[in-house]
Every structure is written in structure tokens, then in C-alpha cells.
């Protein structure tokens, strides 16, 4: 994928498209690439021709790719960071690179300060100001942070490698990954090991690690290839629970917990819970919460939003769980802008064990996504019924419907009234004015069409801010009309954000969970939607997907 970016910045559009197609095919590959390679079947992968086959072969044989290294020398910086900024696509990056030598965040920042962006062909004063704003938003939200999906996968890989090394009695990840926060600043590992030097050496040699930042007796910090750092701490057995508690955070949860300890005449730190000098808990986390008179608080709830009070009064919520999700209520097929066929999506849903799946292709007014008109929806329904029969799973006739500027539904949706489930979304015509947006969304809710509001805030982490909206009014309208709010599991959306979920829950709103998958592999994004729901204190009864959603008669 990196190679594709660099070719595109270089101006080689076709080359870049070819790489990108292969990168996507590789990511979706159900077999082990090395096996495919050994059996000489690389050419069977979509998009792989002779030239690319040679490159993959070179890489798997030697662990290197000459072409990649040449390009890397030319473009030492990670253009991907520039692409994360709103309004910057490869073509504009190409223009900025050739026109002003901009190659990374530093050089972009400098060029903006010196007003050199406005001089680049295709840019002007206005676009320079816009870019300055977008850069500022990026720096304040996601610079130097990874999306949870990526950070969690990385942490899991590292944990597996460490566990199978035999050098660790125990190793866990703490910090924001354990709390399932939507972005992660660094990874925090805690371990018990009898061989600290050996364990440290092993950690340094992991393929995910690019270098040592510092390494001491009981703690080290490493730079990871993914672009963030990670800490590894060696802990004594008797303190492991206390350390896990402390380094899981959050900071505000820890402060509240420490104050509770003090109020009971105890002392809590990363080594244990003490009465005077005598330890009364520390080897396991549960013991610490118990000794403080609390129910166990799962990491997702440790954000200092009332969880300690709830644990004291035994009123913590019984959180929704992944295996309680009976179906996916938002996904796309290649009838609109999805990559996989209806059949592939339905069959994937069946093999994930779902009892139902709702296919929500876009409606006609979203032209960029090849939205469907009423006639196409009628044709699609015939296919859905056939697939439902074939795979023994309820297939709901759904739509992701455009909310029009005046808050009405897409006329094509009104023309075809048979939908079982309507995800109503704002993709276009969004205003800078909160009261306008609020009035529009509430008109949509009051109109009686939506089952749920799709990715309600419209944010894209790092690249697009939330819509300006009076959320309290929207929540009230949803509750009154029985319209749900979506929790969209696409990692860079993570929308509703967990803190708004918590507010909406208090206002009496219910929620639908959706992967918003555009391919079968993205259906796994449901996991992230469940994590957000848990951070928002949701129980099964708050979530539509925990019960059957049937065909509209
Ligand atoms: P991140 O890395 O920015 O995504 O977020 P965290 O929560 O992983 O933060 P990090 O890595 O700085 O620290 C891990 C945990 O360690 C944090 O959640 C709470 C605890 N911790 C770190 N520094 C302090 C501190 O100064 N005071 C207290 N009470 N706890 C701290
Ligand atoms: Ca951290
Ligand atoms: Ca840390
Ligand atoms: Zn959408």
C-alpha cells in the first residue's frame, strides 16, 4: 500500500492503482500468502501479473523489495500521514511536493507559516487557510496516535510472540488498548519474567520493533514500525494486579480510586494496596477492587464517569457482549459501492453465526456511491429472498438513505416503501450552523422513515470534525419517535463516539450496531462497535442487534 501511495505521488496513476488493487486483495486473502507462493499460485490473486508476481517473490525469498527501497530513498517520509489530513489526496500531495517540497507534516507546517502553499499551482489563499485548519485538527486529535483497530491488532501480535517465546510467566497489555479507547498513543506491556536480560533482548528483536528509545533494569521503551512507541515493564508477582490496575488507567479513574483508598485509611499505588506498610491486596486486580468495597470494574468503564459510585452501590451495568449480537444492521454490496456481491456478504454473515443480516445499499441521491433507485431496489429484493432461502438466515431488505437538505428522505426511498430497516444518513449538504443541522436531522426523525440514524456525527477521526449539532435535542427526538442511533464500527468513524453514547443512553435512546462493511472482511468491524457500546455503558436491552429484527409485513 505504501508503494501505491509513493507511485501516486510520483504521478504514476496506473501503476499506483495496480498496487492498490493487489494490496486490497492481499489483505482479504483467506489463505496464508507464503503457502500460495510455495505452490506457485501467486498469479491467481486478483490483479497480480508478471511484474507484481516478481516483486512478491523477491520479497518472500529475500525479505526485501528493491523497488520499494528505491522509492523509500526518494520519499523517506511517510506520505500516509499527509493523506490523513482533510482535503489532501495523492494528486494534491503530488502538487505540494513538486511545487513546494512538502513531504511531511513538518514541511507542510512550515510552508503554511511562510504562506508558500498559496503559491502552488492549484492552490490559493483560501485553500491555504483551509489546509491550516485541517492540519491543526489533525495535530490535536490523531497526530502520533493509532486507531484502536490497528493498535489492538499490533498488541495482539506482540503478545502472541512473547507468550510463545517461553520467556514470560505472564504478559499483558494495559493502557488505552485495554480500555478500548478509539485511538492509542502508546502500548503499555506488563510482564513477569525470571530472565529480564533475555526477555529484553527478545523484545528488541521482534519484527514489529524498529529501535530502542531507552532500556533500563525494570523498564524499557521501544519505537515500533507502526509509528508509535511502547513500554515494557517488569513486575514482581505480588504486585502484578496493582500494576495492571495502575497502568490500565485512565488517569481520572486512578485518581478517584486512590482517593477512595485514602478515605478508608489505605494507600493505593502501582505496587499494591497497603494499610500502613502492610500489603492487603496486589497480586490480582479483582482483589484490589474487592478490598476497596467495590464490584469489579471492567477496563472499558474506567473513564471516571461514575463507575466507582456504581460499583459501590452494586449498580454497574451488565454490558452487551459480542456473542450476544444476532445480526449486522449496516453493510453494502456491489449493488452500490461495496466490493463484494450480495451472495458473498450473506454467506459471510451466515458463517459468522448471525441469525440475520441487513443489506443497506445506498439510495440514489448518493451518486458517488452508485445509489439505487426504486426499480433497482425491487430487483434486489428478489435476490435477497433467494439468498435468505439458500443460506438459512433472515436477510433484511435495507437501505442507507440520504437525508435531503430539507430533512425529507431520498425520493427514491419514498418511491419504494417495502424496506425492513432504514439507516438514514447525512453525507451531503451539511451546514456550519448547528441549529440548521439540528432542525434538518429532527425533521428526518419526525418524518417517520428512519429506523436508525447512520454514523450520526459524521466524524472521520483525524480528517473530519463532528457535525455541529444540538445533541440533546436530537436525543430527545429519537427517544420520542423510537428512532435508534447507530454505533458504526468502521475504525476511523467509531460513530457515535462513546461519550455521546453515554449521554444518549441517559436520554433514553436505543442503538443499532453496524459494521458498515463494504467487503466481507470488514464485517469483523462489528467488534469495534461492540467495544464502543460497552464504553457507553450499554446493556443488551439498549441494543437492537441483541434481539431479532424481523421482516416488515
Ligand atoms: P494513550 O497512551 O495516550 O493512548 O493513553 P493511556 O491511558 O494508555 O496513557 P499512558 O500510556 O500515558 O499511561 C498508561 C496509564 O498509566 C494511564 O492510563 C494511567 C497511568 N498513568 C500514567 N501516568 C500517570 C500519572 O501521572 N498519574 C496517574 N494517576 N496515572 C498515570
Ligand atoms: Ca498508552
Ligand atoms: Ca505509556
Ligand atoms: Zn454512510
Automatic annotation (TrEMBL):
Residues passing through the membrane, by range: none
DNA-directed DNA polymerase X domain: residues covered: 1-303
Annotated catalysed reactions: DNA(n) + a 2'-deoxyribonucleoside 5'-triphosphate = DNA(n+1) + diphosphate
Keywords for this protein: DNA damage, DNA repair, DNA-directed DNA polymerase, Exonuclease, Hydrolase, Nuclease, Nucleotidyltransferase, Transferase
One family name in Pfam for this protein: HHH_5
SUPFAM superfamilies recorded: DNA polymerase beta, N-terminal domain-like, Nucleotidyltransferase, PHP domain-like
Assigned GO CC terms: cytosol
InterPro entries associated with the record: DNA-dir_DNA_pol_X, DNA_pol_lamdba_lyase_dom_sf, DNA_Pol_thumb_sf, DNA_pol_X_beta-like, HHH_MUS81, NT_sf, PHP_dom, PHP_phosphatase
Key word Protein transport present: no
GO molecular function: DNA binding; DNA-directed DNA polymerase activity; exonuclease activity; phosphoric ester hydrolase activity; zinc ion binding
E.C. no: 2.7.7.7
GO biological process: DNA repair
EC category: transferase
Record-annotated Polymerase/histidinol phosphatase N-terminal domain positions: 327-405
Name of the protein described by the UniProt record: DNA-directed DNA polymerase
Amino acid at each position: 500500500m505504501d508503494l501505491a501511495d509513493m507511485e501516486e505521488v510520483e504521478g504514476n496513476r496506473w501503476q499506483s492503482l495496480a498496487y492498490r488493487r493487489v494490496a486490497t486483495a492481499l489483505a482479504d486473502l483467506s489463505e496464508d500468502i507464503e503457502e500460495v507462493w510455495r505452490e506457485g499460485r501467486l498469479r491467481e490473486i486478483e490483479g497480480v501479473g508478471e511484474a507484481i508476481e516478481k516483486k512478491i517473490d523477491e520479497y518472500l525469498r529475500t525479505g526485501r523489495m528493491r523497488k520499494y527501497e528505491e522509492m523509500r530513498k526518494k520519499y523517506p517520509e511517510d506520505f500516509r500521514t499527509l493523506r490523513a489530513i482533510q482535503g489532501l489526496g495523492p494528486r494534491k500531495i503530488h502538487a505540494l511536493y513538486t511545487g513546494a517540497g512538502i513531504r511531511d507534516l513538518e514541511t507542510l507546517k512550515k510552508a503554511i507559516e511562510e504562506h508558500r502553499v498559496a503559491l502552488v499551482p492549484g492552490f490559493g489563499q483560501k485553500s491555504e487557510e483551509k489546509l491550516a485548519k485541517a492540519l491543526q485538527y489533525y495535530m490535536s486529535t490523531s497526530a502520533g496516535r493509532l486507531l484502536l483497530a490497528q493498535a489492538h491488532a499490533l498488541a495482539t501480535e506482540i503478545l502472541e510472540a512473547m507468550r510463545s517465546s517461553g520467556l514470560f510467566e505472564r504478559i499483558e497489555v494495559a493502557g488505552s488498548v485495554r480500555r478500548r479507547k478509539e485511538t492509542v498513543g502508546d502500548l503499555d506491556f506488563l510482564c513477569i519474567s525470571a530472565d529480564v536480560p533475555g526477555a529484553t533482548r527478545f523484545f528488541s528483536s521482534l519484527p514489529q520493533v524498529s529501535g530502542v528509545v531507552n532500556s533500563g533494569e525494570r523498564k524499557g521503551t521501544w519505537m515500533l514500525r507502526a509509528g508509535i512507541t511502547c513500554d515494557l515493564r517488569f513486575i514482581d508477582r505480588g504486585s502484578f494486579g496493582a500494576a495492571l490496575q495502575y497502568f490500565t488507567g485512565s488517569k481520572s479513574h486512578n485518581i478517584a480510586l486512590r482517593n477512595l483508598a485514602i478515605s478508608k485509611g489505605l494507600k493505593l499505588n502501582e505496587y499494591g494496596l497497603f494499610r500502613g506498610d502492610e500489603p492487603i491486596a496486589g497480586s490480582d486486580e479483582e482483589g484490589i477492587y474487592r478490598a476497596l468495597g467495590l464490584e469489579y470494574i471492567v477496563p472499558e468503564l474506567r473513564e471516571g464517569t461514575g463507575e466507582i459510585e456504581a460499583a459501590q452501590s452494586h449498580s454497574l451495568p451488565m454490558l452487551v457482549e459480542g456473542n450476544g449480537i444476532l445480526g449486522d444492521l449496516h453493510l453494502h454490496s456491489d449493488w452500490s459501492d461495496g466490493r463484494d456481491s450480495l451472495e458473498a456478504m450473506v454467506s459471510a454473515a451466515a458463517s459468522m453465526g448471525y441469525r440475520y443480516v441487513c443489506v443497506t445499499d445506498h439510495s440514489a441521491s448518493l451518486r458517488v456511491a452508485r445509489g439505487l433507485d426504486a426499480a433497482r431496489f425491487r430487483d434486489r429484493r428478489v435476490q435477497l429472498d433467494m439468498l435468505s432461502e439458500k443460506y438459512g438466515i433472515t436477510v433484511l431488505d435495507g437501505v442507507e438513505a440520504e437525508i435531503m437538505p430539507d430533512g425529507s428522505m431520498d425520493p427514491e426511498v419514498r418511491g419504494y416503501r417495502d424496506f425492513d430497516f432504514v439507516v438514514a444518513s447525512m453525507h451531503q449538504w451539511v451546514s456550519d450552523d448547528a441549529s440548521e443541522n439540528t432542525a434538518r436531522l429532527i425533521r428526518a426523525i419526525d418524518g417517520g422513515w428512519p429506523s436508525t440514524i447512520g454514523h450520526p456525527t459524521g466524524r472521520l477521526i483525524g480528517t473530519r470534525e463532528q457535525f455541529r449539532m444540538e445533541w440533546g435535542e436530537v436525543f430527545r427526538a429519537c427517544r420520542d419517535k423510537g428512532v435508534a442511533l447507530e454505533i458504526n464500527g468502521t475504525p476511523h468513524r467509531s460513530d457515535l463516539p462513546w461519550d455521546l453514547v453515554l449521554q444518549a443512553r441517559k436520554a433514553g435512546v436505543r442503538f443499532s450496531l453496524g459494521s458498515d462493511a463494504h467487503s466481507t472482511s470488514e464485517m469483523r468491524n462489528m467488534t469495534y462497535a461492540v467495544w464502543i457500546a460497552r464504553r457507553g455503558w450499554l446493556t443488551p436491552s439498549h441494543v437492537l442487534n441483541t434481539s431479532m429484527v424481523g421482516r416488515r409485513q
